[in-house]
Amino acid sequence: MKIVNQISIYLENRPGTLAEIAQTLSARKINIEAFMVSEAVDYAVVRMIVSDADQAIHLLGDRGLLVIENAILCLSIKNRTGQLVRISERLSKAKVNIHYAYGSAGSKGSKGFLFLRVSNLERAQKVLKGM
Q1: What is d(CA 102, CA 27) in angstroms, rounded to the nearest whole number?
Q2: How many CA atoms lie within 13 A of 94 on its CB side?
Q3: Position 38 confidence tier, pLDDT thresholds 50, 70, 90
Q4: Packing angle between helix 83-93 and helix 121-128, nearest 10 degrees?
Q5: Residues 30, 57: contact at Cβ < 8 Å?
Q6: Region 66-82: what's the mean pLDDT?
Q7: Do residues 6 and 70 lie in contact, with contact meaning Cβ atoms separated by under 8 Å?
Q8: φ and ψ at 110, to 5 degrees?
Q9: CB–CB of 45/9 below 8 Å?
């Protein structure tokens, strides 16, 4: 488990905006390691873990985009039944709220990643240690 910097980009909700962002980052050799997109009526929020958050923030900000950086948890977890139950119960008992989460899972038994934006990073790290 580690803390990683995530960028959140607020985009106009129209075709091509994600492609433009991906192209901008790719042109500067910034790798997108994980991402999710949440939509609203007029805009979308793209949350990303990238190889160089500072440079990405600068590049996208120069394009006039609102970009916010947050520290979130990244857990490397084995893909097995009940993992989300164990994680969310431990956080709940510690009174740590999960604001949002996204992740990936490989084939059963392999490792995947879970990214968590939580109300208290330090407490979450303590209760999830060893998972």
Answers
A1: 26
A2: 21
A3: very high
A4: 130
A5: no
A6: 93
A7: yes
A8: -90, 180
A9: yes
What pLDDT shows up at residue 50? 97
Q: In this structure, what token pair is assigned to residue 62?
A: 């120069």
Domains and CATH numbers, the chain: 2-70 (3.30.2130.10), 72-128 (3.30.2130.10)
Are 78 and 35 contacting, i.e. CB atoms less than 8 angstroms apart?
no
Which pLDDT score, from 0 to 100, does residue 87 have? 96
Please give the structure tokens belonging to residue 22: 């991906």
Q: What's this model's pTM, rounded to 2 decimal places?
A: 0.88
Provide CB contacts within 8 A for 25, sequence distance 6+: 31, 32, 50, 56, 59
DSSP code of residue 130 = T
How deeply is 122 buried, as exposed, middle or buried, from its count of CB atoms within 10 A (0-12, 13-18, 19+)?
A: exposed
